[in-house]
Amino acid sequence: ITANFIALAISKGFFAFAIAIVIRANIGATSWAVLEVALARIFNITPGTAAVMVGATVLLFALALREPIGWGTVANIMSIGPWEDFFLSLIPKVNANLPLQLFYLFVGVISMSLGSAIYIGVNAGAGPRDSLMMAIARTTALDVRTARGIIESTAVLTGWMLGGPLGIGTILFAVLIGPGVQLAFRLFNMETYARKYPEDPRP
What we know:
Number of strands: 0
Structural class: mainly alpha
Distance between the termini: 33 Å
Largest sheet: none
Strand content: under 5%
Number of helices: 9
């Protein structure tokens, strides 16, 4: 349990650092950060505080759909926000320097990929967004991929309409994070579902 707790804490640090450095790249935040930064500006709170509020709200929706949660789900909500604010206070914002901005973005992808692999390895329960995704897939005719796409799109579009930092960085991060997580799985010698069950026909 102690080892899992330490691994969970490390994964949240990676998550928070990734979110913060992509925000500071100033070419578009990660999908949920687009919404969280917009809410932070509107309510005059920090992006980390907004992240906690959004995570809690998403979790309430998942619970309303009777989706089971783990101890890591609550830790996910409570820990990433404060770490995000901490890293935002340390990382300088970049303007009009595309090479450095892209470097920030790629570092963010690497950090998020490592954090995802570590977190999944702990198996402490899905995060609030994953919980909602599973709840929607379980209670509707939608598959997991479609459910997640709807959730992510709703977050990004809502954040953009509220003035959040949607940009090319948002798109690049969305494209690169999947391959990044897969590489992180290989780095830690973890099995993806497809590798573990190569004959399974499900997507």
